[in-house]
């Protein structure tokens, strides 16, 4: 059975913060942020908003028929409203869906992980139609006095509807992986004071940017290459690559390693920064709005993040 994406919607909060805005409160500049990352602005949730309200607002933008028959809701998030109930349960209740619902934690690779899980459930016959949501309020776990992380992240949400699609459309392959030994390079604490390896956990994001950069420039091209081969294709067959939007230099390095034209890579981080699990749906939506995707295109998605985790999927759009 072929499973594909039949609808997509996204939502960004209204509050827009530019690099210039940040440079008024932090020892940073638009020049530093833009040349080192490619980011120009980010959107942050207002006090009354949360990960679930962003997820619900994105889902509400889907046509009513897209929601009809949904029997599975997976929300990839690193910033759930609560330990429980899950954000997915809040979405299920809001739309009164007859659905199983749960959150999935794989940081910025979370949405690509969730696509893999949902597609497998549909192929196994456990579910027929799934909402796969990536939603984050990273602003709530950002140390706004730490210029090394505060400039990188934004809030937002995106949702895809997954169900059976005819040949030749839909997902052709998935790959995913984890290297927990790298967890110390990117973390944000919750109930424990330290990681098992002893590093202190804080309630906000702590990152070794250089280590994450090295990891990302290695796993992104590897994951795309493996997923493409698994789909029986060559990387040259890809029409579009939609990578996680953390740093434009990571995307450039991936294009270089894969010997692919950078123009095939969707770059949208200038508009919304890094939204962790919401980033790839936001980048897909950006590509769609800017006529960078057409029906039948062969696309590779690729995410990486805290864990450390990575995932890639190849699909015919
Ligand atoms: N403004 C001005 N100067 C800054 C800023 C800032 N916002 N941040 C750091 N600097 C300074 C540093 O203090 C350092 O100064 P020093 O040389 O005097 O010590 C200098 O700039 C260079 O710092 P580096 O950390 O070496 O800068 P680098 O070029 O590595 O860029 C960055 C940092 C952007 C974080 C990069 O390493 C990166 O993008 N890494 C990957 C991050 C990533 O992908 N994170 C997403 C993970 S996904 C998830 O799961 C959340």
TrEMBL record:
It comes from the Bacteria. SUPFAM superfamilies: Thiolase-like. Its main location: cytoplasm. Its EC number is 2.3.1.180. It catalyses: malonyl-[ACP] + acetyl-CoA + H(+) = 3-oxobutanoyl-[ACP] + CO2 + CoA. Residues 102-180 form the Beta-ketoacyl-[acyl-carrier-protein] synthase III N-terminal domain. The active site is at residues 108, 244, 274. It holds the Pfam family ACP_syn_III_C. Coiled coil: none annotated. The keyword DNA-binding does not apply. It is found in: Cytoplasm. Pathway: Lipid metabolism; fatty acid biosynthesis. Keywords: Acyltransferase, Cytoplasm, Fatty acid biosynthesis, Fatty acid metabolism, Lipid biosynthesis, Lipid metabolism, Membrane, Multifunctional enzyme, Transferase, Transmembrane, Transmembrane helix. Residues 229-317 form the Beta-ketoacyl-[acyl-carrier-protein] synthase III C-terminal domain. It is an enzyme of class 2 (transferase). The chain crosses the membrane at residues 298-317. Residues 245-249 are annotated as: ACP-binding. The last Arg residue of the ACP-binding site is essential for the weak association between ACP/AcpP and FabH. Homodimer. Belongs to the thiolase-like superfamily. FabH family. Catalyzes the condensation reaction of fatty acid synthesis by the addition to an acyl acceptor of two carbons from malonyl-ACP. Catalyzes the first condensation reaction which initiates fatty acid synthesis and may therefore play a role in governing the total rate of fatty acid production. Possesses both acetoacetyl-ACP synthase and acetyl transacylase activities. Its substrate specificity determines the biosynthesis of branched-chain and/or straight-chain of fatty acids. This is Beta-ketoacyl-[acyl-carrier-protein] synthase III. The gene is fabH.
């Amino acid at each position: 059975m072929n499973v594909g994406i039949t609808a997509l919607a996204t939502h960004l909060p209204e509050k827009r913060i530019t690099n210039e805005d940040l440079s008024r409160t932090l020892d940073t500049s638009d020049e530093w942020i833009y040349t080192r990352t490619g980011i120009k602005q980010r959107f942050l949730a207002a006090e009354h908003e949360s990960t679930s309200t962003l997820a619900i607002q994105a889902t509400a933008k889907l046509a009513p028929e897209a929601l009809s028959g949904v029997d599975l809701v997976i929300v990839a998030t690193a910033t759930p409203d609560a330990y429980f109930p899950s954000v997915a349960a809040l979405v299920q209740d809001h739309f009164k869906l007859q659905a199983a619902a749960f959150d999935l934690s794989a940081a910025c690779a979370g949405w690509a992980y969730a696509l893999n899980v949902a597609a497998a459930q549909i192929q196994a016959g456990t579910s027929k139609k799934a909402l796969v949501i990536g939603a984050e309020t990273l602003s709530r776990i950002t140390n706004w006095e730490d210029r090394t992380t505060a400039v990188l992240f934004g809030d937002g949400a995106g949702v895809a509807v997954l169900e059976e699609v005819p040949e030749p459309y839909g997902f052709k392959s998935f790959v995913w992986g984890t290297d927990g030994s790298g967890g110390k390079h990117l973390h944000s604490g919750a109930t424990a004071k330290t990681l098992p390896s002893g590093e202190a956990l804080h309630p906000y994001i702590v990152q070794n940017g250089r280590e994450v950069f090295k990891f990302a420039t290695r796993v992104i091209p590897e994951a795309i290459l493996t997923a493409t081969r698994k789909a029986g294709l060559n990387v040259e067959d890809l029409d579009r690559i939609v990578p996680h939007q953390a740093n434009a230099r990571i995307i450039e390095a991936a294009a270089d390693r894969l010997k692919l034209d950078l123009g095939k890579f969707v770059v949208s981080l200038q508009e919304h920064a890094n939204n962790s699990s919401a980033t790839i749906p936001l980048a897909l939506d950006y590509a769609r709005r800017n006529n960078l995707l057409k029906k039948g295109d062969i696309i590779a998605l690729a995410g990486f993040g805290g864990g450390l985790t990575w995932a890639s999927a190849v699909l015919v759009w």
